[in-house]
Amino acid sequence: MDKLTSMTVFVRVARAGSFAGGARELGISRAMATKHIMQLEGSLGTRLINRTTRSLSLTDVGISYLERCQQVLHDVEEMEIAVTHLQTEPRGLLKISAPPAIGATHIARAVAEFLKLHPDLTVEMILQGSPGDLIDEGIDVAIFLGALDDTSMVARKLASSSLVVCGSPDYLQKHGIPKTPEDLAGHSCLVNWAIAPRNKWQFKSESGYKVVTVSGRMQTNSAYPIRIAAINGLGLVMLPTYIVGKDIENGTLKVVLENYPLPPLDIHAVYPHRKYLSAKVKSFMDFLQAWLEHRVSMPGTE
Predict the structure, then answer these.
(1) Is the pTM of this model over 0.70?
(2) Mean pLDDT for each 10-residue chunk of the chain (302 residues)?
(3) CATH number of the domain at 163-263, out of 3.40.190.290, 3.40.50.720, 3.40.50.1970, 2.60.40.10?
(4) 242 phi, psi to nearest 5 deg
């Protein structure tokens, strides 16, 4: 059997957590997937997977071999891209992850437009609060909001949006209007985990930046639940203007701490270290950057 094919089967089975799941992703039978793994184990002279009737787990050797297989398969993909010039036209499967709020609105609309332009491309989109493990999950591009902590990934800034702190008129009437960032200690601050760093709001003042740790009655990994909570008078929120712009315009939410502006929210695309970017990744990032550039900075757009 072809060693690269067997390595591909091993990686898919390991990621799926079952022979049936890995086989299904590759469009082969469970028996064929098992045959590939047995072939690998025979050639290596060691067991890679511990099998039971209900589950499977990687051996210590299997864990190490999985990491090496993933790197080899990535290297082969890059070599094929360089040799066959697939950079010229996006095709195949593009796997994207994005935070729920911006993913379900802006990124989803951009993906729809991008797919119209490239009929040979298929997109698999995952909405999750963090980019996840791009290598293990096979993600080509992850959209990330806020400060970047993981330096093992390559990042490309796509756009920036203004951030504001706001609350409902009812909440502000009952609990008062904060005059300084320090006043937030006495307020219920609704936290969006999708904006890093979590639970910390950073403000600019005459003496520089000050970071305030906040807490409140609700935390979530998406902007829209806390936007709704804020509209219903449950606390203050820090959100981008492309989400709360219309609420501010119609008076449903009122901006506070205007003398203490927040740094803009940067929107990045992150992807694994690669020497050669495939056509699908490069074209999508170029398209998305142009698509987001003016939309996220316009208050009230969705």
Answers:
(1) no
(2) 87 90 91 92 91 82 91 82 64 91 91 94 89 80 79 81 94 96 95 81 83 92 91 95 92 95 90 74 92 69 46
(3) 3.40.190.290
(4) -70, -10
